[in-house]
Amino acid sequence: MKDQVNDRTDKYGGSLENRCRFALEIVEAVANEIGSDRVGIRISPFANYNESGDTNPSALGLYMVESLNKYDIAYCHVVEPRMKTTCEKIECGESLVPLRKAYKGTFIVAGGYDREDGNRVVVEDGADLVAYGRLFISNPDLPKRFELNAPLNKYNRETFYTSDFVVGYTDYPILETMT
């Protein structure tokens, strides 16, 4: 979907509409097959992984969420523009607010949220739900920790996406074993 990597010259390249066409065709096909209430999508219009950014990520995100409205899917999950590839939060002028306002369905956000930020974004109607990735990996009992406002385990990024099924996935202590 991003203009810095999509150099196609057919109906899937060039304009914003064309670059988004494939993703929207997939959403439509899957929704028609299994029902739109069982379909969700995650988009990262602001991400610039491996130099795959877009010159106007706000327009890209807005076009996608507006286009998704017609499918009445279960949710749209969007990654915050404040995330760097190193998974650190940065200050930036971009915001998901225009996307949230434009999208008519369940809007999920992700990217650098802690307990307080997550509660705030939901209370302020910036999202319906907040997704937690790294915090859940390192805290298998994350909902309980949030409920108790308990300290969190720090995640070890070096153990992400390895072939070891224990280290980094099932070896983080749960709250009861820490007391």
TrEMBL record:
Keywords: Flavoprotein, FMN, NADP. SUPFAM superfamilies: FMN-linked oxidoreductases (SSF51395). The keyword Flavoprotein applies. Residues 3-152 form the NADH:flavin oxidoreductase/NADH oxidase N-terminal domain. The keyword NADP applies. InterPro entries: Aldolase_TIM, OxRdtase_FMN_N, Oye-like. Belongs to the NADH:flavin oxidoreductase/NADH oxidase family. This is NADH:flavin oxidoreductase/NADH oxidase N-terminal domain-containing protein. It comes from Solanum stoloniferum.
